[in-house]
Write a structure and sequence with these properties.
It is built from five helices and nine strands, in the order ααββαβαββββββα. The protein is α/β, with parallel strands linked by helices. The longest helix is centred in the first third of the chain and has 14 residues.
């Protein structure tokens, strides 16, 4: 069964395997290369997908609090000119953090384990790293290439509404951030519950209210940055 990406999927759709993604030729080649590198079959390569992590709506006639201090968060997400990365960065900036982008996902919101692992290696000495995407795995175990990272990482708990581990958030060394809404990932692997509904995001001169654990994680990450 094939479905068009429509922005958000139910937990039942995700875990049933009903979602099938149409990949570009270059993306299919990347999957094959990763499979060879890690010794897996191509259909067992895990793709991170922030597209199903949250929604946003414009602010109309509402006053949002002024920006707070200063700080830096390494954002491992889509490029900042793509909607998801733009909105997550807007939450960080709105709450006083500056953003150092590390695009690990394409503009459409898809990435792979090896790209994320490479970015986690590159940012291992930075104070705060935010991963606003993630994946379930077939056996609920962490994709092996991600298993050794996380000391400085804040990650969204996912919007599947499930206690199944969402990687890399469920790693013990990662700070997994969920929210109190029913859509949030939950369970003993979730470390922090932060506001995740109508989280303010400032993008240029416009403001959005964003809903999803990506934005809850960004809100929490903004509180951790060192303030001069």
């Amino acid at each position: 069964m094939r479905k068009r990406l429509r922005g958000i999927y139910s937990h039942e759709e995700i875990v049933s395997g009903a979602i099938r993604m149409h990949l570009k030729a270059s993306e299919r080649a990347r999957v094959a290369d990763i499979a060879v590198d890690v010794g897996a079959t191509p259909n067992h390569v895990h793709f991170a997908c922030p597209i199903m992590i949250g929604t946003s709506r414009p602010v109309i006639g509402e006053r949002i609090p002024e920006l707070l201090g200063e700080g830096t968060v390494a954002l491992l997400d889509t490029p900042l000119d793509a909607p998801h990365g733009m909105l997550v960065a807007g939450v960080l900036r709105h709450h006083g953090a500056s953003v150092r982008p590390f695009p690990v996902l394409g503009a459409s919101g898809f990435g792979d384990d090896l790209s994320l692992a490479a970015a986690l290696r590159a940012t291992c000495d930075l104070p705060v790293v935010l991963v606003a995407s993630g994946t379930y795995s077939f056996d609920d175990r962490c994709p092996p290439v991600l298993a050794s990272y996380g000391r400085n990482v804040v990650a969204a708990a996912g919007n599947g509404g499930s206690a199944r581990p969402w990687w890399p958030a469920a790693l013990p060394s990662v700070t997994a951030v969920g929210t109190s809404a029913p859509f949030s990932g939950h369970g003993p692997w979730v470390d922090v519950v932060a506001p995740g509904v109508d989280v303010p995001s400032t993008v240029g001169t416009s403001q959005q209210l964003c809903t999803g654990t990506s934005f809850a994680a960004a809100l929490h990450a903004a509180t951790l940055v060192p303030v001069p």
